[in-house]
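If you are new to this repository, start here. Below is one unmodified record pulled from the training split, so you can see the exact layout before writing a loader.
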Amino acid sequence: MPSKSAAGARALVTASLVLSTAGVPWPVMAQAAVQGRALANANVKAPDRAALCMACHGPQGVSQVPEIPSLAAQPKTYLENKLVLIREGLREIPAMKGTLDGVPDTELTALAQYFSAQVAPPVATTKPDTQSFQRGQALAKSALCGTCHLPDHRGRDQVPRLASQHETYLHNVMKAYRDNPGPGRDTVMAAALYGINDAQLKDLAHFFARSP
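And here is the target side for that same chain:
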């Protein structure tokens, strides 16, 4: 189970986020986000470069490959940040090396806006392991995942969507954060996952992949 130091890191993150959203009811925030996404989705056209992204990340950013993340419905700011980090070589992803070289900020913003406005990927369709799902659900609650990623784990601002993401990808990326954060990865996440064992990571991934 997580150590006292990891719990302390989570508590610090929780306190800062609670202060930043004080006085704003969660239903109001959620409804505003839904309305904003619906408006964006109605007005956003696919940038030319989006076709290159979809070659790996799937139609409209819904990945068909378990090891590759879906981009659809990820928060716009999160996508912008990651695209800039990859372009500048601060976040190394071998398969994307060189693909964003020289791409101007305006194009990266257009890509982020397009994919963030797409419909979220469907939840995993394979039969769930009830016990693993329940363990993951309980661990997500005790680890305060919903504090940063929101109670329905759809993400916001610079915090990614976990809900309905590929289970394999989720497990792999959480393990990387825990064991080898590396450049361009969030150190808060490395602290939050410290002390969580491999079996628990699998339970978390199983739960998030089946969360709508």
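Two things worth knowing about this chain: Residues 26-43 form the longest helix (18 residues). Residues 1-40 have pLDDT under 50 and may be disordered.
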